[in-house]
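Notes from the 1:1 (GR / supervisor)

We went over the backlog. Supervisor wanted to see one worked example end to end before approving the batch request, so GR pasted a single chain during the call. The sequence is below; no edits were made to it. Supervisor asked that the structure be written out right there so they could see what the output format looks like.
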Amino acid sequence: MATASDGTPRQLEEPGPHVARTILVAATAALGGFLFGYDTAVINGAVKAVGEQFHANPFLLGLAVAIALIGAALGAWNAGALADRLGRIQVMLIAAALFLVSAFGSGFAVSIYDLAFWRLVGGAGVGAASVIAPAYIAEISPAALRGRLGSLQQMAIVVGIFVSLLVDWALVAASGSATAPLWFGLETWRWMFLSLAVPALAYGTLSLTIPESPRFLVARHELARAAAVLRRFVGGDVDAKIAEIGHTLAGRAERPSMSVLRKPGGGLLPIVWVGILLSVFQQFTGINVIFYYSSVLWQAVGFTERDALTTSVITSVTNILTTLIAIALVDRVGRKPLLLVGAAGQAVCLLTMAIVFGTAPVVGGVPHLGGAAPVALVAANLYVVFFGCSWGPVVWVMLGEMFNNKIRALALAVAAAAQWVANFVISTTFPPLAQAGLGLAYGVYTLFALLAVIFVVRFVRETKGMELEEMA
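Structure output shown during the call:
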């Protein structure tokens, strides 16, 4: 294909954007979300087998599960600075490499300690992907489509969770157990981790086919390339848009530091706090307890290993379908109404689960739900419905768009890091909370869902239809 003098493919000179083309580019960036979901959920089917294989005590096993979240926090924290220095595409490639290394390291782990290390590496890839995908998608999308395209991040996450659980289920079905040997004498749980290599390679390869963010290009003074990308994917008066982007970047350092997130009198900018708290509340209602521990949880109340994995797969399908609802509504209804309805609905479902588990008789340390088991199962899936059509996708949409051009990558990095820290707190505190009583655990999550309603009413600003250059 012929290229322009600046190396840009000549096809970028075509007038007017094409929605299908923009969707494909956004979907490619969202593959990082697929790996994010796949990597964080693959442990679901492997955790019990890993504990048995390495004779790990509950603390070490919990650490191997949760340490990926520490890696994600570290990866997210550093991704913003790297994205501003190297570009959005380079960070995608780094994330893909981390996923690939983690897949092989985890699959061939010889102890619980090196498994934890490779999970930490994969977590860093997850964190980087969680920052770069929403930032890139927001920066490449027209305002009228930004909510729907931003929701592709969450769609990719839940599809990644679904595929991961489906792969776990299929591997267990093929071998009979996660601890049983499968191909080449390797235990089934090892193949669960090794399977991550396939999407990691796809993500890295496809990232090389998409253009750099026009906002990053303007910041680097590569105006011709920025104009070509805007013309092809965003449309409108490209020269005016470049001037507007340039104006919002005026005074920005070549390599901005975290100091840009502080207000003159000290402390973080209010908008950064809003992003942090959106991230924290997304996690503190306990969503990842469902995805990390659902298999173990349902086994604890009487399901077989295979039936528990089947239930987890059904839950992940529910999450996919509800994300489609969010994609349909986010640019019509708006971000704030979806967050309010979602938080209220989650509170009702969590309260139901708290009551069911809290009142169930405990025999041998296991709650016996009896006839209330279907109620708990329905409440858990309705909880996923409310999360999937609101806080799951909408938080990622808002984190990608709510910050101005000067601080977007760095502010998103801080908010995403906070999200991973919150995820770590929830994941590591659930086992002791569950031991004290599942009714208590779900009661705590109910309280946070109610606090989320108050937070959205008081502090969250609607961003539907706004240009990125209008963000404060």
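Supervisor's comment: Residues 15-470 form a domain with the Growth Hormone; Chain: A; fold (CATH 1.20.1250.20).
Batch request approved.
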